[in-house]
Amino acid sequence: AEMYAGLQELGVANGEDLKETLTNCTEPLKAIEQFQTENGVLLPSLQYALPFLDLHGTPRLEFHQSVFDELREKLLERVSAIALEGKVEERYKKLEDLLEKSFSLVKMPSIQPVVMCVMKHLPKVPEKKLKLVMADKDLYKACAVEVKRQIWQDNQALFGDEVSPLLKQYILEKENILFSNDISFLQNFFSPSPKTRRQGEVVQKLTQMIGKNVKLYDMVLQFLRTLFLRTRNVHYCTLRAELLMSLHDLEISEICTVDPCHKFTWCLDACIREKFVDNKRARELQGFLDGVKKGQEQVLGDLSMILCDPFAINTLALSTIRHLQDLVGQDTLPRESPDLLLLLRMLSLGQGAWDMIDSQVFKEPKMEAELITRFLPLLMSFVVDDHTFTVDQKLPSEEKGPIPYPSTIPEAFTKFLQENRIACEIGLYYILHITKQRNKNAFLRLLPALVETFSDLAFSDIFLHLLTGNLTLLSDEFALEEFCTSLFDGFFLTACSRKENVHRHVLRLLLHLHHKVAPAKLESLQKALEPTKQSGEAVKELYNQLGEKLELRKPSPAQVTEAPSMELPLPTVPTPASR
């Protein structure tokens, strides 16, 4: 029935008609011949050609099928051509007429592509037809994305069902990178360039689904805001920026010109590409922030979400550390550097994104003066400590012996890391910086401050992913008991039992560096890291992988040749028989 759907409405005979004719006739062969004449290709010259094909054993079905396929291809080409020629009203009028005539055949598999092609080229398919397509699962599945867009823009729930699996896939992809078993300081979560990231499957699919439709773009942004509020997952902020820049790459001006964040995101994207905010771009970004007019403060909610993207935070934090080092060399205080103050302003706006969108109070967070007057100078003093220690080591040693590296942490530093989000973020990036420099002394000095941090940021996946990568540069230190005790017992193991993600990151690190750790320490770590009943599959899987690797390292019994015993065997004494 599907094969002939809709033919009767057009007055064209179908298989059912032939069946009925043959059932009620006395001369079947004559009836078939008459049916062929009435419904065949009405071309006089064919009368002589068809018997010729019969002689070659070519079935009539094969002939008609090839003619049909050829005509359908020509019709599809013609429909696409009509969509581009003549005046706009005329071309669409032709297509609408064609749709009206052909729509009844939409369920007929052989004709369906033509009907779908007509709908695809119509900027506005009649609502009645859209509803019929939407109500039929197979038709909905078969129609082009151009038609689906027209359905989606008035059906947010249906669009949400289409987008939801893509968003889940996106988050999963990000988490898989953070928990990847490949640990390296050269290749990490932040290595791919923005342009490379935008080529990802999810971003490309969403870009195609949105097309030039502002309404659908707004819907996706609304989904991302809602999910960010519900989960606090910052990867949704990344997708917000990537989607806008993907539309920018395609020069979709219909959307880019109406998104107030477009130019700001474009400028920030260039900074992320360079992993640094230079002076020229800093001034541009400041211009955008200062240009938010009264009554338009709501745009700050979107800008804060763009700045909350981990790739943006990473760029701002790296630039901040670089600025602080430059200031040490220039004998300048943080409060005297406008560029540094702008970086802090943007970090503050990004870190405050969730609170701003949640409270719907659109104003920039107030910067704490102590962050600039006390915390940043404290960080600079650590840089000075390193320089001083390096110079001391090079000086000829006097009788008093070498000066030890400072081991105490100022109480204020620990307090800032616990109570101030921006200070904590910058502090963590400073620790990543010294680890990358292989500065073991500075790392061990500041590590205790990480046990308690603002909102447990030191145990967040992004920080631990970067830290484990940088720690590979200190791989030789893992043979030392003091280093391992400070790192594992003093930091990682303090959170393993309450935070499964930390458990996973420690196992990732050991899978990579187990051969560097002293055997006795490795054994105690293996016991401490044994999964509990509550542990997830990922932890159990990693623990088993580690166990297998350690098994392979043990020498096999055959290799261990036992030394001959030096003791003489004792003579056996018969036991007295019991009476």
From TrEMBL:
Pfam families: COBRA1. Signal peptide: none annotated. GO terms for cellular component: NELF complex. It comes from the Eukaryota. Residues 553-579 are annotated as: Disordered. One of its GO terms (biological process) is negative regulation of transcription elongation by RNA polymerase II. This is NELFB factor.
